[in-house]
What we know:
By secondary structure, this protein is mostly helical. It is built from 13 helices and no strands. Residues 290-301 have low confidence and may be disordered.
Amino acid sequence: MTLQPAAQSRARSIQGALLLAGLTALWGSTFVVVKDAVDPSSPGAWPVGLFMCVRFFLAAICFIPFFLRRDGRLWIAGVELGVFLFLGYFSQIIGQKYTSVARSAFITSTYVILVPVCSTFIGRHVRLIIWICALMALAGVAFLSFDASPPNRGDLWTCATALAYSIYMLRLESHSRRFPAPALTGISLLTVACCSLPFAMAEARPNTPPPYFALLYLSLICTALVTWLQTIGQSLVSASQAAIIFTLEPCFALAFAYLIHRESLGPRGWLGASFILAAALFSQIPAFSKADQQPAKEINH
């Protein structure tokens, strides 16, 4: 039995949403790992540039076979995504040197508002339900993460992270529907590694051994695998919907904290988690609207 185009569009949108929701579980584990690896107060911390350079070169190695494609448009798109991805990761890692994990998670999640705002500026129509869900998700992250401590320079760096990720998600929505995910992912990761190289060369050599677990886990799982899955997922849903789904990240982080350290949520935490889950679910309403049932272009992922 062949599904009608409208049913196929709904199914693909739901698949994309579930895929993006799943990869946020991996993202939820990265904040503590990164902070321990680059925080100057942590034993064995590495410089930010060197850490990023090694992390992304290791991730890019996984996609070497796909670098052989001689498609100029593909390489331009991959490099563009890589530059914005570099700006996002680099500013976030620097920010985490000076601000708390909770503050970093909250400020980064402001892309849930920045993405629809940027979409409006470039002439795209953003449905009212997406704006409502974005505000709900932002409020939920605030309940979960905001610690009410005074602002610091790490907060400013993390604001730059949110803006860079917003632009990255908007451009990824477009490019992921035109080019194969493995090639696009590999080129973007290689670009991040190359952008990090000058900073790595300018930094003093660390006197401590590499943080092997952090580098391998972040490179192979939370960078190579997750970036590839995000490329596939965003070919199936809009950037605004993806941004809302990604705010599930602090919920997964708290779930890991409970499983590993038995840290439980208070009333404010449960309220925040409820807001985020509701926003993620309601953001999928457009997938069931006849106005949004145009099938996405098929890509050989």
